[in-house]
Amino acid sequence: MSPSSAHLVDRSPVITGSEIGASLVPPRQFATASLSNYRPDPAFPSQAQAVAKIEEFLGGWAPARSSGGGLFGRRRKAPESVTIPGVYLDGGFGVGKTHLLAALWHAAPGPKYFGTFIEYTALVGALGYASAVSLLKGTRLLCIDEFELDDPGDTMIMTRLLGELTATGTRVAATSNTPPNALGEGRFAAADFLREIQSLAANFETLRIDGNDYRQRDMTGHARSFSPEELQFTIADAVSSGYRVTTDDFSALVAHLARIHPSAYIKLIEGVQAIALSDVRVLDSQTDALRLVSFVDRVYDAQIPVFASGEPLDTVFGGDMLSGGYRKKYLRAMSRLVALSTEDV
After folding, report:
1. What is the CATH number of the domain that holds 239?
2. CA-to-CA dists, residue 123 to 18, 117, 120, 176, 213, angstroms
3. One domain for residues 200 and 108
4. Which residue of 143, 152, 194, 231 could cross-link 309, Cys pair, CB 3.0 to 4.6 Å?
């Protein structure tokens, strides 16, 4: 397909529990995230209010002084300033929830972990439940990005895990990412989440953040689609400039993703500086589409530009996918693909 010999379909990475644990830090684009460099949209006051709530969460930090019950159980009374034992950021995609979560992580005392819901469930799967609890026990802050309620089994595992950790003093911060049928708004039903965590804390603070997708504020149209000739030229130019580029047929990559656990997608793109895909087509399998969403999330975290020919990448979710239970996930992936396709190497 191109002058580059690297292909994602030739990689079959596996990832260990210890590697997952070591990777539980904010994505590269949020390495310097702070409350001061978050830019609230003045048209949506809830964004500035969320910053104030995160500051309150940080301001109330105090060492756990357990008497056996932990943060949410029996303990000696904490300072009056400790008013928010846990915080949950609920809102649409692209309103800055992950930025705020990363800003909280950077400012909080350690030990601390930051990962997506799927990374924590993968950690449990790789290590086993007891070993995962042992690794995370003693954590002062656990940040969970894109908390999902897609799979009842995974939800119960996370509920149990968080219960054990918070009982020993761990505080939890999370953002939402769930099928959008609840409330009919394409938003996470906060009440549903609170019901799931009743065993953790009755006074868990849920913050609703409204706004427009920041990735679309200065961007219109679809993901860029190259002609086959333009794609070849772009690949050759990137390779000659010293970039590590992978080239793959879109359908072949989608099929390959089925052979790799989503937790290992981060290793699939390790060392890659640009991704080229030929003959992009509309997907008709929701299973394939959801795998692609997970892959796009990791590519976006790594900020790897994507060049493609065929259908625009943000139009690949076909049929009734955008009106179904995973609409929110697909819209987030579409937003990220538009952003990635406008990046230059």
Report:
1. 3.40.50.300
2. 8, 10, 5, 19, 30
3. yes
4. 231
104 lies in some domain: yes
Cβ neighbours, 10 Å, residue 224: 18
**Residue type for position 171:** R
The reply to whether 240 and 303 lie within a common domain is yes
Sheet of 274-280: strand order equals: 245-249, 274-280, 306-310
**Residue 33 domain flag:** no
Number of separate domains in the chain: 2
pLDDT in tens, 298-310: 999 899 999 999 9
pLDDT of residue 292: 96
Query: Which one, of 313, 240, 301, lies nearest residue 276 by Cα?
Result: 313
Half-sphere exposure of residue 329: CA atoms within 13 angstroms, side-chain side:
25
Question: Which range, 63-77, 176-190, 200-214, has the best average confidence (pLDDT)?
Answer: 200-214
Cα–Cα distance for residue pair 108/101, rounded to 1 Å: 11
How far apart are the two ends of the chain, measured CA to CA in Å?
19
The model's pTM is 0.76
